[in-house]
Amino acid sequence: MKPTPRRLFSWFLLAIVFLVLLHFALPFGLIPKLAFPNCGPEGWAWLEARFENKQNVIAYLQAHELQYLSGSSLPRLVDIPPDMKITRFDVEIDWQALEQTIEVENRLFYKIYNLTYTHPACMKGQYYTLRVTSFGWASLYGCCGI
Question: The dihedral of CA 73, 115, 37, 24: what is its sign?
Answer without folding.
Answer: positive
